[in-house]
Amino acid sequence: MNNHKLTRNLYMVPYAVWILLFVIAPILLVIYYSFIDIQGNFSFANYEKFFTPVYLKMTLSSFWYAFLITLFSLLVAYPTAYLLTKTKHKQLWLLLIIVPSWINLLLKAYAFIGIFGTYGVANSFLEVIGIGTQQLLFTDFSFIFVSVYIFIPFMILPIFNAIDTINPVLLDAARDLGASKWDTFRRVVFPLTMNGVKSGIQIVFIPALSLFMLTRLIAGNRVITLGTAIEQHFLVTQDWGMGATIAVFLIIAMFLIMFLTSGFRKRGA
Amino acid sequence: MSNTIIQFQNVSKQYDEDSLVLDDVSFEIERGKFYTLLGPSGCGKTTILRLIAGFTEATKGDIHFNGKKMNHIPANKRQVNTVFQDYALFPHLNVFENVAFGLRIKKMKNSEIKAKVEEALSFVNLSGYGDREIKDMSGGQRQRVAIARAIVNQPEVILLDEPLSALDLKLRYQMQGELRELQRRLGITFIFVTHDQEEALAMSDEIFVLNKGTIQQSGTPNDIYDEPINRFVADFIGESNIVSGTMIQDYLVEFVGKQFTCVDKGMNKNEPVEVVIRPEDLEITSHEQGMLQIKVSSQLFRGVHYEITGNDKDGNEWLVHSTKSVNVDDDIGLKFEPEAIHVMRFDETEEDFDKRLDSYSEGDANEQS
Ligand SMILES: Nc1ncnc2c1ncn2[C@@H]1O[C@H](COP(=O)(O)OP(=O)(O)OP(=O)(O)O)[C@@H](O)[C@H]1O
Ligand SMILES: [Mg+2]
């Protein structure tokens, strides 16, 4: 009995060390640095600065973009996942959609620079249909488009699983009780896939808040997310304290979203 | 108008290129009765219910509802509600909302919904359970929720697909009684599916015995038990002794090398037949007095009776239900009345079978007058 406990505790060691070194320690460091001002003294200056309009506006816009990206990902992913479950070789189709997510994000970003560039495929097409060359790169549109493209597989996967695990007899039951196809979707399918949708939102919204390479490559630094701001403070202005403060708020935001999206989960399950 | 509510006309069903799941099935369902579809696993019972409910379409043949063809009418437009085998209750809705589902679809007023749902819940003895989550209900309670969800819509027909199979024996007996009672009170047509013959005999006004996608026999529980049309039905409904024999002439049949008077007639002279005798119709007597002699090979105590098996000298096995106890290896005799003998012809259609049986009762009437 005791022996058993001991071995179990031994198995826990690598995990505990990992958590300590790579989760707890960095968070403590971040919190520590957030109280150090640019001169290296302990102060609340960074927090005061965060609550100035410049930073608040940036936070707000970061949330706004993350919201748009999540929304559009969801709007595309839900119907796609739904149709996928209806196909004959659904696992194969799913795989084909998931595979692009294995490719490095930077690689995909550079590909889009080519596509959206002044002489890219997209503009050639616009030229052909008579609209003419447009500035596509470095716009809000291209930023959201590419982000959505990148996040869609992560949104599809949990939703697909949620739809796929619905007992088909429940759909028969709804029809039997007089529900049209739309009623069945609205009253049975969608509520039963809410957990999948929430997981999808978690997986997309949080990383979207901290996106930073795309903001430079695709949005040309016109969009500043929390992630970009952190990167700039650490690497460009070398103001580690301010960067850490923003990171603290990003972490708080993450916990909040986790809490909000899984808080509902208890009732649905 | 006639009392017929559902009519199947030569309905066949085939999935993909597989063999026929239903082969030329025809029957009529009358308003307000309790019907049972009885048959072994895979014989097509669920398929018949799915055709009636509209979850699948017939490959051939017509299905009429109240005299109107309804082959292509979608499930949500049919006056039929189903109690599914595993209940198919909506896990995201509580008991009240599950029952209210059909009414909400109909956009009924809230106050009206509340009244109807509460009435339906009290019908199935679940008053006050409305706020419970489905996962907090027991198997028997879930089943009742499923029934309430069906009856609250006041359909003309309720289809029940083995609703009792998941329950333990005691609850099952109790629910059998409750279901039958409920059907009488509501006066709605019930079509009940089971592969448990006792359940079918206990509950039904009329039973359809199915095998391999065809209806073997239909009739009241008594008819089917007493006068099975063929070996399959005799075997499936209750325990029986089946031996091959020859119909010497009217009222005289030969089996195990002896001739016996019986009440069957209307067959060809010396026609090969099968003979059924139910175990409870066999009476144990001494070796000498018996019409048949067997050597007891085993005896089981079943509570109400002993189940005795033995073999005659030809090697046929005989099953006897008796309140008397015997000893294994005893030589005993078996006695039976002419009425206990039931003669079955090979490959007789249900139509011919019914005609033959009808002629007996006419004969009886003539003799008595
Ligand atoms: N969707 C389907 N596709 C192909 N074959 C099917 C389908 N549904 C049922 N079958 C086949 O049809 C036959 C009859 O099935 P059905 O479900 O009607 O049987 P059942 O009498 O209800 O059996 P059980 O008592 O096991 O529920 C089975 O052989 C089954 O394999
Ligand atoms: Mg079935």
Automatic annotation (TrEMBL), chain B:
The keyword Hydrolase does not apply. The keyword Cytoplasm does not apply. Its EC number is 7.6.2.11. Residues 6-237 form the ABC transporter domain. Keywords: ATP-binding, Cell membrane, Membrane, Nucleotide-binding, Translocase, Transport. It catalyses: ATP + H2O + polyamine-[polyamine-binding protein]Side 1 = ADP + phosphate + polyamineSide 2 + [polyamine-binding protein]Side 1. CDD domains: ABC_PotA_N. It is an enzyme of class 7 (translocase). It holds the Pfam family TOBE_2. GO terms for cellular component: ATP-binding cassette (ABC) transporter complex. GO terms for molecular function: ABC-type putrescine transporter activity; ATP binding; ATP hydrolysis activity. SMART domains: AAA. Belongs to the ABC transporter superfamily. Spermidine/putrescine importer (TC 3.A.1.11.1) family. The complex is composed of two ATP-binding proteins (PotA), two transmembrane proteins (PotB and PotC) and a solute-binding protein (PotD). Part of the ABC transporter complex PotABCD involved in spermidine/putrescine import. Responsible for energy coupling to the transport system. This is Spermidine/putrescine import ATP-binding protein PotA. It comes from Oceanobacillus piezotolerans.
